[in-house]
Amino acid sequence: AEHMYYFSELALTLNEPEERVAPTDSRLRPDQRLMESGRWDEANVEKQRLEEKQRAVRRRREAEAVEALEEGKDYEGYIPQWFERKVDAVTGELICVYKGGYWEAKDKQDWSRCPDIF
C-alpha cells in the first residue's frame, strides 16, 4: 500500500475491471483505463472527448425541452434506466429507488437499454 499512495488493498481494487458489466459501468471509461496504464496525454485527450460528448447530449436535451415548450408539449427529459425518483415517506426528501432490470439485463447480457456514453 505504501507504494500505491497509501491506499488500502480494498481501495486499490475498487476500480478493477469486471467482466459482463453494463457498457456504461464507470470502470470501462476509456480515459480511466488510459490513465491507469500511465498514458497521461492520451487519457487527457480522451477525457476532453468524453466531456464534449456529454455537453453535446446536454445541449441536445435542452434544445428538445425548449422546442417542446414552444410547441406546448410535455418534455420528460432524461429518465434513468435502473432508478426512479420518489419522495421518501419519512423524510420528505427526493430519493432514487432501484426500479429493477439491471440484474436481469446482466444475466441475459442484454444491454440494449444502455446509452452510448463512451
From TrEMBL:
<dbReference type="InterPro" id="IPR037239">
    <property type="entry name" value="OSBP_sf"/>
</dbReference>
<dbReference type="GO" id="GO:0005829">
    <property type="term" value="C:cytosol"/>
</dbReference>
<dbReference type="InterPro" id="IPR000648">
    <property type="entry name" value="Oxysterol-bd"/>
</dbReference>
<dbReference type="GO" id="GO:0015485">
    <property type="term" value="F:cholesterol binding"/>
</dbReference>
<dbReference type="GO" id="GO:0005886">
    <property type="term" value="C:plasma membrane"/>
</dbReference>
<dbReference type="Pfam" id="PF01237">
    <property type="entry name" value="Oxysterol_BP"/>
</dbReference>
<protein>
    <submittedName>
        <fullName>Oxysterol-binding protein 1</fullName>
    </submittedName>
</protein>
<dbReference type="GO" id="GO:0097038">
    <property type="term" value="C:perinuclear endoplasmic reticulum"/>
</dbReference>
